[in-house]
Design goal:
By secondary structure, the chain is mostly beta strands. Helix content is 6%, strand content 40%.
Length: 381
């Protein structure tokens, strides 16, 4: 029995860490799968799609020689990789990862996670949907994340408030580094020792086909060594450009999930890139609220950090005093009455309360030394 290290944490953490979201088995509740998104009414960012002009043909690689077919197993060879982000000819694509695990003894435990991604290079946009299943209710959940330029929204289920706008930075959204690129740094173990068994066309892309087994070293992202009974997998890499089109791994052993090192477990991964250069449209989510009714204004330079129905948090370059003066003037102009008994100010912090027709709006305004900006949180009920 060979001691080897497996890539268990790799696919469970990396995708959501870039969204500042805690997976928590997947999202803890909200088991309903996200509905398809549509463009909402109002002033929202325009739907993002592949660049205008001639509609791109899905999955069409640049012209060049087709790879020569290799009959039978051709043995080990050095594999080179390219990241999707380095390929100018790819403008859009989708990716899918399916992870499944189960214990092979009693009591039976099992779970799965499916992660779907859509990516557009210019103008920059991405959409990610993640659904999980498991033995316990805490393991079942779903989330959806949409980013268009510097605006982003997240939906972790109705129990978590439905759609909310979250902080986003367009510079952090690099095309080709979506859920996983599976370039050289992402492929578990780097495929050293993989054997080329032929050439195939997968999802419209001519590929070199490799297989591997427990003789290759696999990497576990800090999980340490595990006891591997058996493992095997396959990978299809673009013959012309060297990026991963499809990857599978199937393994049995102990400690594969990085928790109980004594229980025998089965673990599998399926990953693929498809719909390359398809006409992908990513739109703002239907029903995503700004967080506030129309009669509560925001500062002109407001940068929204989070917004959902009944609440918004944003930052502004204006001082605390200027923000207070703004709301003390604008709220009454919109029919609100200030409650002086519930309002206070001290150095760097102010709290305001307004009422209108049975509604209450509370504002907390604070200066942040680190960012040198003023943070504003408004809640309504």
């Amino acid at each position: 029995m060979k001691k080897i290290v497996l890539p268990i944490s790799l696919l469970l953490i990396l995708a959501l860490s870039t969204m500042a979201c805690n997976l928590g088995g997947l999202v803890g509740g909200g088991g309903e799968k996200p509905a398809a998104t549509q463009a909402p009414s109002g002033e929202k960012p325009a739907a993002t799609q592949a660049p205008s002009g001639e509609k791109p043909a899905a999955t069409q690689a640049p012209s060049g020689e087709e790879p020569t077919a290799v009959p039978g197993e051709t043995g080990e060879e050095e594999i080179t990789y390219t990241s999707v982000e380095e390929l100018d000819w790819i403008n859009t694509y989708r990716s899918r990862i399916i992870i499944k695990w189960e214990t092979l003894d009693e009591p039976k435990e099992e779970g799965s996670m499916e992660m779907l991604g859509e990516y557009v290079k210019d103008p920059a946009a991405q959409r990610v949907v993640i659904n999980s299943t498991g033995t316990t209710e805490a393991d079942i959940g779903s989330m959806e994340y949409i980013q268009i330029g510097d605006k982003a929204w997240m939906n972790m289920g109705e129990e978590m408030g439905g759609w909310m706008q979250v902080s986003a930075d367009e510079s952090d959204m690099t095309f080709g580094q979506g859920l996983f690129d599976f370039a050289e740094g992402d492929i578990p173990g780097g495929l050293e020792g993989a054997r080329r068994v032929g050439d195939e066309t997968v999802n419209g892309i001519p590929c070199r086909h490799y297989v591997f087994d427990e003789t290759m070293p696999l990497m576990a992202m800090g999980q340490g060594e595990v006891e591997l009974e058996k493992a095997n997998g396959e990978v299809w890499i673009s013959a012309k450009d060297g990026f991963t089109i499809k990857y599978t791994l199937d393994a049995e052993g102990k400690g594969l999930m990085g928790e109980d090192k004594e229980r025998p477990e089965h673990f599998s991964i399926e990953y693929e890139v498809y719909d390359i250069n398809a006409d992908i449209v990513i739109e703002p989510p239907s029903g995503a609220e700004t967080g506030l009714p129309e009669d509560i204004p925001l500062m002109d330079d407001a940068k929204v950090d989070m917004a959902m129905e009944g609440m918004i948090m944003y930052s502004t370059a204006s001082s605390v005093e200027d923000v207070v003066a703004f709301y003390e003037a604008q709220m009454p102009a919109n029919g609100w009455t200030q409650n002086p008994d519930a309002s206070f100010s001290m150095e760097g912090t102010s709290s305001l309360e307004f009422t209108k027709e049975g509604r209450t709006a509370n504002l907390m305004i604070t200066y942040d030394e680190d960012s040198q900006k003023t943070n504003v949180m408004i809640t309504t009920e």
